[in-house]
Amino acid sequence: MKEVTGRKWWVLVAVCLAVFMGMLDITIVNVALPEIQKSFATSFSTLQWVLNAYTLVYAMMLLPVSKLGDRFGKKQVFLIGVVIFMLGSLLSGLATNDTWLNIARGFQGIGGAAMMSLSLSIVTLAFPETQRGLALGIWSSVTGLAVSIGPLIGGALVDSLGWRAIFLINLPVAILTLIMGVVFIEKGHADADEHLDWLGMLFSILMVFGLILALIQKEMHMSYAWTDWRILSLFGLALVSLIAFIAVERHGQQPMIRLSIFRSAPFVGANIAAFTLGAGIYGGFTYLSILMQNYMNYSAFQTGLKLLWISVFTLVLGPLTGFLTNKIGSRWLISAALVFGTAGILTIDHQMQVPFAWSDLFLGFILLGISNALVNPPISTTAMGAVAKADVGMASGVLNVFRQVGISFGVVILGIAASNGYTAKLDGGLAKLATLPPVLQNPLPAAKGQLVDALHQAGAFAGEQIFASPQTKGFRGTQLFEDLHSLVFHAFENGFARACLVIAGLLAVGAVSAMVLIKPKAKEGEDHAH
User: Fold this and answer.
1) Which CB contacts under 8 angstroms, 24+ apart, belong to 509-512?
2) In principle, which of 179, 330, 331, 341 could form an S-S bond with 378, CB 3.0–4.6 Å?
3) What is the pLDDT of residues 301-344, one digit of tens each?
4) HSE (CB half, 13 Å, CA atoms) of 81?
5) Count of CB atoms within 10 A of residue 354's CB?
């Protein structure tokens, strides 16, 4: 792309608006689910597909839209993505039942994938090497901000305008993005002679579909074992598709992905860091929100405000990371940032105790915020600088797939860790309650049985909701009620501690991988000839 003074910054504004919308819609819907459930009078498990339909289609399409951008032009496919996202948002806002909404969310995911994947390559090509670090720092800051500010914006919109507003608010932003994109983004190169690798695209879609859907099924059905046929068959589909994809790409004349990009150690290191970041910090946001809303009695809006302590650092430190990268190198910056994240989650683990208080989280949130702010820009800069210019679009798609699969993996694996720790502590505590002399156990044995059953059915993440349910009304204030209340909170503390250790382990793996694989001699921004 030709550089025109000032134009490149408007390009950055346009793609950042699109990225903000796309990433925001991954997290903003969480806080609206209770209102949507009331509106459609459907089950919560059915409504989970409002989240999962977007996530699944979004992840599946990240690689194909990157290739379509190479074939038809990044600007054209990016703008088509904005239009698809806008239409999906409109259809979601007008939905009259959950099936309509789920389909609209899937359609919206196609647009979100095009905006996210192509925005990174558009920014990379629009800026010269000397300014690329700063531009990608700003881009990454917007990405991190959108993920963490979603609950705040969602809570404000739902409280003031209703759940449909979280979708309809995208329309004016999308129109502004379209106008700016048409005016400022250079048309760029479209390779009309390049044949689309249809088999490669098909197998890439099936691979990501199988992997993400298996994780979604595990998330929605924690009782399923990893060896359950409904999980194992999807992982099998992903594995067979991966093998077929590699075979097609190795022997194709114009492959969808040049597999040689994975020979670049810095590129592999950046993708491992992106995966562990997604699994650890972004996956952890789900359970930090559950802790604050269901165990600390914060509203969705208040939870969003607290999470700002993480996201606000992206605004302050994000743009400075380009300077820091040039001074100390991506290898050290990524590793240090992930160590900050590890320290942050271990601090939360150390501080947390019943009764939970904001002071338990505050210092850890600051460390997580610093980590999130410092790590995203050098990951993007490293991945984009480790491949030839012709491969920038596909490298962007691969990086985003690793990050998104990381988020899905993190939500599942952290949920399993938290649930197992919760159940172990709960069952041990209930066994002790059961051994008390009958006169001390409870004057309402039938109610006790109902409540114990309800505790098991509700799981680790219900929190105060179970104690506010109608079946508890008859014996609130009794000793049994207080004992079980305390037991549930200590059980969640145990489960959350296990999840914290898993997050710390994931971030530590990312830090070590970056240190080992991202060599000091790999200078960001160079176009390597592979």
Assistant:
1) 509/272, 509/276, 510/272, 510/273, 510/275, 510/276, 510/277, 510/280, 510/334, 510/338, 511/273, 511/334, 511/335, 511/336, 511/338, 511/339, 511/342, 512/335
2) 330
3) 788 788 888 878 877 786 677 777 777 888 999 999 999 999 99
4) 33
5) 16
Contact 131, 9 (CB under 8 A): no
Q: State the Cα angle at 181 between 179 and 183, rounded to 5°.
A: 70
- Whether the CB-CB separation of 369 and 311 falls below 8 Å is answered with yes
Rounded CA-CA distance 171/85 in Å is: 9
Instruction: Report the C-alpha gap between 383 and 387 in whole angstroms.
Output: 7
Burial 51-80 (b: 16+ CB within 10 A, else e): bbbbbbbbbbbbbbbbbbbbbbbbbbbbbb
Q: What pTM does this model have?
A: 0.83
**Nearest by Cα to 388 from 526, 252, 249:** 526
Three state DSSP letters for 115-153: HHHHHHHHHHHHCCHHHHHHHHHHHHHHHHHHHHHHHHH
Comparing 151-165, 187-201, 222-236, 491-505, which segment has the lowest mean pLDDT?
187-201
Helix axes 7-27, 129-161, angle to 10 degrees: 40
- Residue closest to 475 by CA, chosen among 455, 453, 506, 447: 447
CB 305 within 8 A of CB 150: no
pLDDT at 107 over 90: yes
By mean pLDDT, which of 260-264, 429-433, 441-445 is the weakest?
441-445
37-55 pLDDT per residue, tens: 888 877 666 777 888 888 8
Does the pLDDT of residue 128 top 70, yes or no? yes
pLDDT tens track for 463-487: 777 777 665 665 666 777 778 888 8
Instruction: Specify the amino acid at residue 235.
Output: F
**Angle 273-277-279 from CA coordinates, rounded to 5°:** 120
Residue 305, judged by CB atoms within 10 A of its CB (0-12, 13-18, 19+), counts as middle
Tokens 């099998």, residue?
236
Mutual angle of helices 33-40 and 98-126, in 10-degree steps: 150
Measure the CA angle with vertex 323, ends 124 and 387; round to 5°.
35
CB 257 within 8 Å of CB 263: no
3-state secondary structure 184-242: HCCCCCCCCCCCCCHHHHHHHHHHHHHHHHHHHHHHHCCCCCCCCHHHHHHHHHHHHHH
Q: Which of 48-57, 267-276, 407-416, 451-460 is the most confident on average?
A: 267-276
* DSSP letters spanning 65-99: HHHHHHHH-HHHHHHHHHHHHHHHHHHHHT--SHH
Residue with structure tokens 């969705």? 300
